[in-house]
Amino acid sequence: MDKTLVILAAGMGSRYGGLKQIDPVGPNNSIIIDYSIYDAIKAGFTKVVFIIKKENEALFKEVIGNKVSKHVKVEYVFQSLDKLPEGFSCPEERVKPWGTAHAVLCCKGVVNEPFVVINSDDFYGSGAYSNLANWIEKTDFSGDKYKFAMAGYYLKNTLTDNGTVSRGVCDVDGNGQLKDVIERTKIMRVDGKISFTEDGESWTELPENSVASMNCWCFPAAILEEIEKYFIEFLKNEVPENPLKSEFFLPFLVRDMLSEGKCTVDVIETADRWFGVTYKEDKPDVVASISALVEEGKYPEELW
Length: 304
What we know:
By secondary structure, the chain is α/β, with parallel strands linked by helices. The protein has seven helices and 13 strands.
């Protein structure tokens, strides 16, 4: 079965500063996306779709696209503020992208097979790709509910030493089904314990092995039609209240569909350690982590 990897790479990278998606972190100037695609190809994915800004197309092709296109089919999708359903227009003065669910919606007409969507600046580990590829192969996508999957990471494996992180903390039932995702925007270790705060003053502890969503989702292609319906409702109901900053996020879409009984989500847990460049200070740790994986033989020095 054909499987596509969709890579979200149109974000601004406001906390990091600059286009962190193409910042080298491995030997031979390899970037995090290189390792994601390498793992996905090994797991049997047959196509990669980059969601980028149109103005970054030449740069992305030079840094990554032209290299990997010799090993897997590559396509580009452009997220822009004016990519809106008929009858809608972008509010004046808005510069912020519409969010991750809108980015995925931009793949309509390009992605026609089950797909996994990831962040471009997150290192997920090979287990997520092989596990989700196996899930796609064994899943019957027919039926009255959409069938989704999510790579679930242990919260203790998703933190940075350089500040707070935002994580979707998951409520998972005994059958491995996602019941809810609660966004915690400020999580970090406080006195050695994983905790979150809402007000910046009081902290609430979270279990080390809480399941966290790292925005690594698996969907059937039919979800794109559904996303469009939800996006129209978002444009009607939420944008008028916050025209410059409201965003249409993938986890919120999944949560809404779950609460309305439109889908099921299998949580595919992985013990791999996540790492990424949320902050500039994270880069040395990412470089050291990838170097260690290369030395262990998990990756060749020259990927392509």
